């Protein structure tokens, strides 16, 4: 037999290279390569060595380990706090993607098994993603994306799987640290690591990575992702009107503790990390093409950005016209250049011109100075049928907000998996954000909620939630539809939502406003990312967000902060700049609130005429069965006919929610008719009456003692001394009159107690006919019978 020829199959090529010499073999004459053997001993020479570090965060210990799970991934880390564990993997392709941006996908998944539960859907398996998973994925993405090298356009995927949850420690921050560790351990080019902590504020005391119980009483929920040299990479916060000085202290505390996590990851990567791979191609425009584009187009671009008469559409059209001219000249000058290099060269020049005007001339493309707001106008009570409505216009950003009330039963219910993981059972306040394509003069499919819309709506909801009264008797839904967009539509949603809530008469504790702060820096990647100069911009336009280095959104009342989200596009900001941004946003926020107060300064004293109403009804036990009806028939009927919602509070109290006052009026009439007093004919305990059969059922007959009475059930057990299975055995028919004895009402449920069986004995001799209100006495009456 001929010696086998060594062959490395394409599918295993990348793995075999890393495995340290494993080979596939095939024999002559065999068409398809066959994997005969792979020498893959589980040793440190062929696999990652298992290792881990422990980071001491005060009274809590964070454990980060790698090398045992998912070893085919480029990088994998397991982060544990208490008994909660999250596994994060990172994989990046070795061939570049044709996209013109960093193709990073982050998916965070909460598995039911981690919470010791089984999914409730019909397949009993995980399906789709929840809003909480999407929002957590966005936080992770914003924490790691800025640290990828410029021009690294290789498909990269980060998957975060929740392995176990103890119900005490929230796993979202663990996933951020896991993503940082997985990237740091891998051979993927990345300028990390980063470290993330959650900061809570309970009874005036700041807590790092608080437990779920501590978070339930915390007035602050701040997540800080810090980079090396105490820089800030990402921030997101929800707060209950926390003062600025307390918030700033929490940020500094979070950055301080993030450095300990970074040191732990650096130690782990030094001991067990892989050597970073060499990038085949960096997608950047060649310097000579950029220089030529600069000489040809920079003055034209400068003229457009210096013309303050332009609005969003005309400015974009003017720049696009220059782009087409420049790209045509570049293609003629550099015929061998790649299309991406041509397009990127113009983008680099355009961005540099825009930033230099801000840095050197202290001007913005719409003529404002660095700290001025755009023109703001707002109005309320736009449509009379709505419970509350408002429109908020800031420059060319326009948002329409509406408020809708409904019963508490219509609150958003969480499935038991989400409840087990986050502790949130239901929400009686929600804000939904919609961004249709016409808001930016585009055409697109209306395919429902996307990740961006969910994230913007969640931020505006965080901003408004602290001012909503906790004991409000309705479920509140605020919808925010962006009609025009030119920057900061999420903060416009917070402003418009606040106006709409006051228009609806919701007794919010204070007016809420939000603003976005931008940043333009003179950034030097060659000098370890040192920021040599910078300008902070108040109330940024869309183009300032696109060409800038930060989108810092902050909302709150005139006294404190309720929500914050910082999207930082460079590998980190020093604390000094972040503190200045908070101060600048605070000044702008108060100015916006003053403008809003001129339209409506406080909630309406009463809700509008067509707003829903809630009433409570006291139903005695003796009438409860009539009110509810057989099998809940009356409750279902009243809800179907009038649109009200009836819910039981206690044994004798029912709450009635009506969408309109007229519906409540109809419901009252229905209830009065159903629960009218059956004692118009004073029934005597122990007396015998003539009853008319109105319906025959399997379990008995329905009878009336007088024409206007609600039929009551005479059970089979009370029809005869003999045991019968159906009333037809006694020859009973509808319309037939029978004698029954009255034993009052059941004290627990108010049911009328009747018996025909007892009349089969000679004891009862009093018969009363109530059809004509005349009593006929036959024989003698025995009061005791």
Provide a descriptive summary of the structure in words.
It contains 16 helices and 32 strands. It is of the alpha+beta class and 785 residues long. The protein has 6 domains: 47 residues, no CATH class; 212 residues, GHMP Kinase, N-terminal domain (Ribosomal Protein S5, domain 2, 2-Layer Sandwich), CATH 3.30.230.70; 75 residues, Polyribonucleotide nucleotidyltransferase, RNA-binding domain (Arc Repressor Mutant, subunit A, Orthogonal Bundle); 222 residues, Ribosomal Protein S5, domain 2 (2-Layer Sandwich); 62 residues, Ribosomal Protein S8, Chain: A, domain 1 (2-Layer Sandwich), CATH 3.30.1370; 90 residues, OB fold (Dihydrolipoamide Acetyltransferase, E2P), CATH 2.40.50. The chain starts with a strand and ends in a 17-residue tail after the last strand. It is a peripheral membrane protein. It comes from Xenopus laevis (African clawed frog). GO terms for molecular function: 3'-5'-RNA exonuclease activity; polyribonucleotide nucleotidyltransferase activity; RNA binding. InterPro entries: ExoRNase_PH_dom1, ExoRNase_PH_dom2, ExoRNase_PH_dom2_sf, KH_dom, KH_dom_type_1, KH_dom_type_1_sf, NA-bd_OB-fold, PNPase.
Question: Which descriptors would you attach to this protein?
Answer:
6 domains; alpha+beta; 32 strands; disordered N terminus; 8-stranded antiparallel β-sheet; 16 helices; Arc Repressor Mutant, subunit A; 6-stranded mixed β-sheet; 785 residues; disordered C terminus; Ribosomal Protein S5, domain 2
């Amino acid at each position: 037999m001929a010696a086998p020829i060594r062959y490395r199959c394409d599918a295993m090529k990348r793995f075999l290279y890393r495995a340290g010499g494993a080979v596939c073999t095939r024999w002559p004459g065999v068409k398809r390569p066959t994997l005969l053997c792979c020498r893959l001993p589980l040793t440190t020479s062929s696999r990652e060595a298992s290792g881990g570090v422990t980071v001491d965060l005060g009274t809590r210990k964070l454990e980060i380990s790698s090398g045992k799970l998912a070893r085919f991934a480029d990088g994998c880390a397991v982060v544990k706090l208490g008994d909660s564990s999250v596994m994060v993997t990172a994989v990046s392709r070795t061939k570049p993607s044709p996209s013109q941006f960093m193709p990073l996908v982050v998916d965070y998944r909460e598995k039911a098994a981690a919470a010791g539960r089984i999914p409730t859907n019909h397949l009993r398996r995980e399906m789709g993603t929840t809003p909480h998973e999407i929002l957590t994925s966005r936080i992770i993405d914003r924490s790691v994306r800025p640290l990828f090298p410029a021009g690294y356009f290789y498909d990269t995927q980060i998957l975060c799987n929740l392995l176990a949850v103890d119900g005490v420690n929230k796993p979202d921050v663990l996933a951020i640290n896991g993503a940082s560790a997985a990237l740091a351990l891998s051979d993927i080019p990345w300028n990390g690591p980063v470290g993330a902590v959650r900061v809570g504020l309970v009874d005036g005391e700041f807590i790092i990575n608080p437990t779920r119980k501590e978070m339930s009483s915390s007035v602050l929920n701040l997540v800080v992702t810090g980079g090396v040299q105490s820089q800030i990479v990402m921030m997101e916060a929800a707060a209950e009107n926390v003062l600025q000085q307390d918030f700033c202290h929490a940020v500094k505390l979070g950055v301080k503790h993030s450095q300990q996590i970074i040191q732990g990851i650096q130690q782990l990567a030094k001991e067990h990390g892989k050597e970073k791979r060499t990038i085949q191609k960096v997608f950047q425009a060649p310097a000579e093409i950029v220089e030529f584009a600069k000489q040809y187009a920079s003055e034209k671009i400068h003229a457009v950005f210096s013309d303050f008469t332009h609005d969003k559409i005309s400015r974009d059209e003017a720049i696009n016209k220059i782009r087409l001219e420049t790209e045509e000249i570049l293609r003629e000058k550099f015929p061998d250049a790649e299309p991406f290099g041509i397009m990127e060269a113009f983008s680099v020049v355009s961005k540099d011109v825009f930033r230099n005007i801000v840095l050197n001339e202290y001007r913005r493309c719409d003529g404002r100075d660095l700290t001025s707001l755009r023109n703001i106008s707002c109005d309320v009570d736009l449509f009379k049928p709505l419970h509350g409505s408002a429109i908020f216009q800031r420059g060319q950003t326009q948002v329409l907000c509406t408020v809708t009330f409904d019963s508490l039963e219509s609150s958003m219910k969480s499935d038991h998996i989400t409840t087990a993981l986050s502790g949130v059972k239901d929400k009686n306040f929600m804000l939904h954000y919609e961004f249709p394509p016409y808001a930016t003069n585009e055409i697109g499919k209306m395919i429902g909620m996307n990740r961006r819309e969910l994230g913007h709506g969640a931020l505006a909801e965080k901003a408004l939630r602290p001012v909503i009264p906790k004991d409000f008797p309705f479920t509140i839904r605020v919808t925010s539809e962006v009609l025009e967009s030119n920057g900061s539509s999420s903060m416009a949603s917070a402003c418009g939502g606040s106006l709409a809530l006051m228009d609806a008469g919701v007794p919010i504790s204070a007016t809420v406003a939000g603003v976005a702060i931008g940043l333009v820096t003179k950034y030097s990647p060659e000098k370890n990312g040192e920021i040599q100069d910078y300008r902070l911009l108040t109330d940024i336009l869309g183009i300032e967000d696109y060409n800038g280095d930060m989108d810092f959104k902050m909302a709150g009342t005139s006294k404190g902060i309720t929500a914050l989200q910082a999207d930082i596009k460079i590998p980190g900001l020093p604390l000094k700049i972040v503190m200045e941004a908070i101060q600048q946003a605070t000044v702008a926020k108060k100015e916006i609130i003053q403008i809003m107060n001129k339209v409506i300064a406080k909630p309406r004293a009463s809700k509008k005429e067509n707003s829903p109403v809630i009433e409570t009804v006291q139903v005695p036990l003796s009438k409860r069965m009539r009110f509810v009806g057989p099998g809940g028939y009356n409750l279902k009927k009243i809800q179907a006919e009038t649109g009200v919602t009836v819910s039981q509070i206690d044994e004798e109290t029912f709450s009635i929610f009506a969408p309109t006052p007229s519906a409540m009026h109809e419901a009252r009439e229905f209830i009065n008719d159903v629960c009218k007093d059956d004692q118009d004919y004073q029934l005597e305990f122990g007396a015998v009456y003539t009853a008319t059969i109105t319906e025959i059922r399997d379990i008995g007959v329905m009878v009336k003692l007088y024409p206007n009475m609600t039929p009551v059930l005479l059970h089979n057990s009370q029809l005869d001394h003999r045991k019968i299975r159906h009333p037809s055995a006694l020859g009973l028919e509808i319309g037939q009159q029978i004698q029954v004895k009255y034993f009052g009402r059941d004290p627990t449920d108010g049911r009328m107690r009747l018996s025909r069986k007892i009349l089969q004995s000679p004891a009862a001799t009093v018969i009363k006919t109530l059809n004509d209100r005349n009593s006929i006495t036959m024989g003698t009456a025995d009061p005791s019978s």
